[in-house]
Specification:
Elements (H helix, E strand, L loop, with lengths): L1 H10 L4 E7 L4 E6 L6 H10 L28 E9 L4 H12 L4 E7 L4 E7 L5 H10 L3 E9 L7 E6 L5 H9 L4 E6 L6 E6 L6 H12 L6 E7 L5 H17 L3
Antiparallel strand pairs: 1-2, 3-5, 3-6, 4-5, 7-9, 7-10, 8-9
Keywords: Metal-binding
Protein name: HMA domain-containing protein
GO molecular function: metal ion binding
């Protein structure tokens, strides 16, 4: 519950692309736009909800080079996202995290109990995504590779508000959590039947996310979008998705 509260506070800040909190190391790994939000501001947000926070390390996105090496000569980093099943407490997430951190080539592994996900960064000769999956399964948890690719890919954050039947809220949360690119899903305070879904628009577009929710929840849930908010307006791809949504809505309304 504590880790989830900190993750939600960080993801709610403008400019934050993703945030994962480790109950084992007591560290939060945050991907953010420094032009929009600062580490000091994020630490203040965490302190506002009752936790101590300080900036431990800040790293840029540019590849790190030494001894005159060019960026192309720097070790290649790969990011792997695993869906984890069977975790019920921080002891479980800690077991999975330590397991992943011990694998060959892993430079960082963070497990989110709230999202049932593991986020792993590997460098150089390293264990494959399938080997990471097998390692987690070997310690007693279900695992599935949700995504694997270059760790330095550009991120982003957007929020989709959807309205659904009141009794479908819990199911919507469960469906959303299993969709790649979804960062969080929760009820929107003061708006009956509306769910607030934060997601990475470089992983899934607004139309694709809405379509998946409608497909998984079924017609009885009456899922429909109400609004889309983009935190990083430089993501032109997502702006295009928003324009398509608006055009689709206009075409659906009879004259």
């Amino acid at each position: 519950a504590c880790a989830g509260a900190v993750e939600r506070a960080l993801r709610g800040a403008g400019g934050v692309r993703s945030a994962a909190v480790s109950c084992v190391t007591n560290l939060a790994h945050v991907d953010f736009d420094p032009l929009v939000v600062t580490p000091t501001h994020m630490a203040a947000l965490v302190e506002e909800i009752g936790f101590d926070a300080s900036v431990v390390e800040e790293r840029g996105r540019a590849p790190h080079t030494e001894h005159g090496n060019s960026p192309s000569e720097a070790p290649r980093r790969m990011g792997v996202e695993l869906k984890i099943g069977g975790m019920t407490c921080t002891v479980c997430s800690g077991t999975v995290e330590r397991c992943l951190q011990s694998q060959k080539g892993v430079v960082r592994a963070t497990v989110s109990l709230v999202l049932s996900r593991a986020f792993v960064v590997c460098e150089g000769p390293a264990a494959s995504p399938e080997e990471l999956q097998e390692a987690v399964e070997a310690v007693g948890f279900d695992a599935e590779v949700a995504h694997a690719g270059a760790a330095a890919s550009a991120g982003g954050r957007a929020v989709l508000h959807v309205r659904a039947a009141v009794d479908a809220g819990v199911e919507i949360d469960a469906f959303a959590k299993d969709i790649r690119g979804v960062l969080a899903c929760q009820a929107l305070a003061g708006h009956c039947g509306v769910r607030q879904i934060a997601y990475d628009p470089t992983a899934i577009g607004a139309r694709g996310l809405l379509s998946r929710l409608q497909q998984e929840a079924g017609a009885a849930a009456k899922v429909e979008w109400t609004s889309v908010r983009l935190d990083n307006e430089q993501l032109q791809h997502h702006l295009t998705e928003m324009a398509k949504l608006r055009r689709g809505l206009k075409l659906a309304v009879p004259p």
